[in-house]
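Recap from last week: sequence in, structure out.
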Amino acid sequence: MALQSDRANGGSGLNDDIGEAKRLELYRTQVTIREAEQRAYDLFLQNLVKGTSHLSLGQEAVAAGFAGAMQKGDLSFCTYRGHAHTLARGVSVEKVLGELMQRDNGLMRGKGGSMHLTSADHGVMGSYAIIGAHLPIACGAAWRAQYKGQKDVSVCFFGDGTTNIGAFHEALNFAAVWKLPVVFVCENNLYMEYTPIGDVTAVHNPAGDRAGSYGLEKIVIDGNDADAVYRTARAAYDKARAGRGPSLVECLTYRHSGHSRADPAKYRPEGELERWKERDPIKIYRERLLQFGIGEKVIEAIDAEVRNVVDTATETCKAAPMPPMDILTTDVYADGGWAWRN
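Predicted structure tokens:
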């Protein structure tokens, strides 16, 4: 088992294998996700985002670390909590907010909404609202890469609750047997919707403790430490590209908000949220940058630039038109149309 965190290295033994440029990129990605998702919440309160959505506030380090270690061509498969991973792969804030606001400038021209963000150009192969549906699909994409001798890796993100359904076990077994270039990433935020994962799972680590059943290493990491996530992702990708098969990584993290917009999260024990906010991934990473001698002004400049990007994107999306009715029946099937074909 690997439980990794730079914080455990001590002040004098900090590992600088990542480098300043990559660390600034990881920080910028986390701040972008935080600011964009907080803005999405604000827009929802203004009735500008319809329906529900699922935020990753507090979980930004997972998306930033895994995306930061990817190569062009690698594929991301997300859950309905997919805004963070979509932004981390380079999709613009405007495209994401536009989609949430059902505007014509959205990523999918307003037709997909919060739970179906997709951008093949950025390697984002969909957000899936059906729990666990994307695990076998990620295996299929990885099998294609293996069959064709291509070097891209499929990365499949899912929540802790997914580990208790059949698709999780079927996908893990299939990937292990065929040594597929796929990385399974469990974002364990302690709750499967409203139920504590520990109340309904026979093992302590819902993903990590099951890895051995498929001949895989138990990997449980600090999901709030972007450096630990980045290093783990890099090692898993290297393993997959070398033909040595899949990895299963459990990232311990915590969502600051409820499961969705409709959830006030009253089920959480008193003080739990406050304790986890002390380990806010952005707070941790800001301190990390300072440890490595990156100045406050550099950090503040990133913060200001990201806020400006989010502000500009917000106003652009507010002014953007709704999608025209003539696209209502386009792109229903792969040929771009809607007519059923036998």
